[in-house]
Please model this.
Amino acid sequence: MESSSNHYTLFQRLRSTSWETRKQEPSNALIQVIPQGVRIAIYLPTNNILVALDEIQFTSDLTTDQQFEQFKRFIPESVLSEAAISSITISVEPRYFTFLPTHLFSEESAEASLMELSEISFPFIVMTEKVRPEMVLVFAAPKIWYEWAEQVFSFSEIHWTCSISGMLEPILNRAGEKEVFAHIDPKSFIAFGVENGKLLFANYYPFKAENDLLYFMLLVMQEMELTSDTGKVNLSGSILSGSAGFEKLNRYFGNLSFAKNPDIEHEFSEYESLRHPLYFDLVSLLLKPIPA
Model:
C-alpha cells in the first residue's frame, strides 16, 4: 500500500462563525465515505445544528485500503481532531447493498443475500439497518474501517449506516406519481424508483463515460415503465447544470429537475455551498435520527 504521499485534495472546509468557542461542546460526528472522497461533519446533538464540515476528494483511483490510508493521513488536520466527540456515525460507500423484507430477515439470510450480488472486492463486515417497518437494508462495511473505529472510538457509541438509508427518508416521504431519483457521482450513481411513498426499485451503476450514464438511465426508465420524454427524473450529487453528463441527459429526458436539499440548521457564514444537491445525501444523513 502506497503511503508516502497524499492522494487527496481539500475540497471543502466550513466552520461555524462561533467555532472557536463551541468546538469543545459535546458533539456528534458523521464520517461519510463517498466514491470520490470522505466528508467529516460535526453537529450538536441538542438541536442538530451543523457547525463544521471538512471534505477531501481523492486525486486518483484508489483501493479501499488506500482510501482508508489517505483518510488517516488527513485526520490530524481535520475538524475531527479538534472537536469533543461523544458519538460517531460512519456512513460507508453504498456500492454493495440489498433490501430484505422484514418478515424474511435473519442474520444468515442477510449475509447470503449480500454475497449473491457479486464478489465484494475487499474484506467486509455485514451491516443491517431497519429502514422501514417492512424492510431491512443490508450493506457491506469495509473491515479495515470497522476495526479502526472500534479501536479509536471505543469511548463512544458508534453507529454504522450508508447514504442510501438517509436518502430514503426524503424520497419516500413524497407521495405522488411514479418518479426516479438518481444520485450521481463522477463514476457511479444510485437510482431509486418510487411511487406514492413506496420504493419500487433501487440499484447501483458504475459508469466510465456520459454515454454509459445515459444508457443506464434509459434502463432505469424502462424498468420503471416511464418514457424518457415525460417521466419525472430528480437529480442530485455531483452532476451540475451545464456539465457534459447533464447535457447528455437533458438531450434525451424531457422532465429533469434537481432534488432539493432537506433543510438543516447551521452556523456558517457561507451556507450557499451546501445548498446544491451535491450534498443531498450528506444533509439527509444528518437529519436521520441516531438509533436508540
